[in-house]
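Step 1: inspect the first sequence and its tokens.
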Amino acid sequence: MRRDNLYQSPGGHTFLIPVDEGFKQTTRSSLVDNKVIDGHVIPNNVIFTAAAQIEVPQTTAAFEDNLKVTASFFKQKDGKMYVKSNTIVGDEKHPTGVVLAEIVKANIPVRNGVVHLIHRPLMIIDSTVTQFLQLAV
């Protein structure tokens, strides 16, 4: 999608890269676009999980005039770390809502920041609240 410059930009950034489920071809694969890719980068802020401020929203590269997406980290009682994207202001292709992804491999240092591998893509909302509640019952 020609977003190489985002991942090669100098400075210190946090990159959230989906693996596992993120590489499977599903109906959600067609929803990945430049803005979704931008939503996986926290620019100018290197965040290692041990020092991450829990539940503090960080602006992503997808935080702009017409789209506002933040990401925050939190830890479960069992010690697993998660990242949560929150699309605060969406558009026709990117609905508002929250997506949760487990960090499967954290704190991989790279020349311009840190990479966290996550189990699924952020910003792509799979179900409505009604569908989620029906599955939960």
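Step 2: inspect the second sequence and its tokens, then contrast the two.
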Amino acid sequence: MNLTARLADYAWLVRAQLRLRTPDWSAGTGAPVLLVPGIWETWHVMRGLGDALHRAGHPVHGLDLGTNSADLASSAERLCARLDGLDLRHAVVVAHSKGGLVAKLALGRTDRLDGVVALATPFAGSRYATWFPARPVRRLSPRDPEIRALAADASRHARIVAFRPRYDPHVPRAATGAAALTGAVEIEVDLEGHFRLLGDPGVQAAVVRAVEGFGAGR
């Protein structure tokens, strides 16, 4: 991935993080959707996905995890509590990056979720996180016990659809490949970058189809 593309990826993220207005997406007759962001993100970076899902008839809600820097177990508890608080049933999580790990863990802790659609999620951890100065990022290393245990558990993979870009500067291919997600549906997107696929209209349309596929049987 060249420097220009990498800078464009980060520029997209900065612009997306500034969209702080909270829309009302609560109406809709489709499967309810919960948006779960990645580390150091708010769910506002997924605004375009929320708009697309709501236009398709889905009630959409965001999950506030602050900076999403807590451990996976604590965040999964908050996800389940949010589902309980909204009384959502047969819901689907649409998650970015670390949010997909939180959602996978939550799949085994609640009966309110039908599935997870994850984008650019390091399901086997990211080797780039191993020596990162900040502890919250190092928790995403393949060496982390929580990551290793979650990666080894394939019991929930049949309820996961995972999108990944052609090249991701934060998540090596091995972290999202077949070894990490045996039994899941994996889709490679012809884009470069960890963030920009969230704003791509083609990806958004595919995510809508994936969400609707849980209700129809894939």
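Step 3: confirm your contrast with the notes below.
The longest strand covers residues 160-167. Helices lie at 3-17, 47-55, 72-86, 98-107, 135-138, 145-152, 201-216.
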